[in-house]
Amino acid sequence: MAMPPSPVTSGRLTIDLAALARNWRALDKVSAGALTGAVVKADAYGTGLEQSSRAFYAAGARFFFTATVDEAIALRATLPKAHIFVLGGLYPGAASLYVEHRLMPALCSLPMLEEWLAACVSRNEALPAALHFDTGMGRTGFRLNEASIVRRQIDSLGFAPQMIMSHLACADTPAHEKNRTQLALFQSVMAQFPNVPASLANSAGLMTGRDYHFQMVRPGIALYGGRAVSGRRNPMSQAVTLEVPILQVKEARTGETIGYGAAYNLNRDSRIAVLGMGYADGFFRSLSGTNSRPGGKVAYRGKVLPIIGRISMDLAVADITDLGHDLPLPGEMMEVLGPSITVDDQADIAGTIGYEILTSLRLGRFTRHYVGMPEEE
User: Record's family (predicted)?
Assistant: First the structure.
């Protein structure tokens, strides 16, 4: 006897793996002449490390970048043949772990370099690694005046790095003068490491121009459909849809308030939908709607609707008055991300960036669904 379908009890997060693959292939076409990697840190930007990495591999990606060694180990279990760089560098005392799982640290300090070279000597093997130089980001990386020291140390042992790299601070604003400054500084570092492959461009750098491509590009946000360059139309395929259940539909009267702090006062008789989603699911309190500031958005059958009142831990409220008689029922779903509302739409309202919206999806109490797994090339 067939069982009835399970009732909707939580939000539904759908990741279109075919869209991820299309995005990688589109970026690979733009960066023709350079290898195109895939940055899969933070659980592949909230989309799921295992499934999304497989989609990129099927599309043709062979070089992957994680932030932590734990992420890299999980990725190695998923993709045994991939080339994996750890952007966080070499964690003290962990060299044997990198060797065991065939991971390449992005070495960014002299102590890291010394520890890695010691591991090479102890194993009588030139273990692969990248050298990361800080050309103006002000985070991890060798200082530029350390380049000659790095060069002497690796030459003394005959060590050849797999790659030298840096990271752009302002690539999302292509006309920013710092981009050209960093490019020139990176080229000065490259001159000290002739014949070593180089990598500078993230998603925005890749889109800014071929001068930034070198031998490898490292797209991240654009792979997942997010906007990489400010002020430009986003050309990437949307890959993430988030829907949440409607828990209750009710009438409310002029003058009544919605949510904690009575921050939203109704100025008309209204119909509202209470949604099973809150800040515990990564839907930020900054998406709350007040009488003085519009909040986040949801959509029902393509009609975009406002969030009103403060977002609470588990609940949010949408004003559905403008739906007229086409009212939803409890148990139906509201779109939070999808065809009507992009990651960047919500980010703009929240005063943040699409990266934060996407990576916060990891917090959500959502059921995950994957569709459209591409065929491997």
Answer: Belongs to the alanine racemase family.
81 is annotated as an active-site residue: no
pLDDT of the residue at 4: 44
**Domain 240-341 is of which CATH architecture?**
Beta Barrel (2.40)
In the structure encoding, which two tokens stand for residue 236, read together? 């990437």
CATH code reported for the domain at 17-224: 3.20.20.10
pLDDT, residue 249, reads 97
pLDDT confidence of residue 374: 75
Model pLDDT, residue 1? 40
Positions in the chain short of pLDDT 70? 1-9, 377
Q: What is the pLDDT of residue 377?
A: 62
The dihedral through the CA atoms of 87, 88, 89, 90 has a sign that is negative
User: Would the annotation count 139 as a binding residue?
Assistant: yes
* Catalytic, out of 29, 41, 81, 303: 41
List the chain domain ranges.
Answer: 17-224, 240-341
- Which residues have CB under 8 Å from 315's CB, separation 6+? 247, 274, 275, 276, 277, 278
What count of Cα atoms within 13 Å lies in the side-chain half-sphere of residue 182? Answer: 24
- The predicted pLDDT at position 3 comes to 43
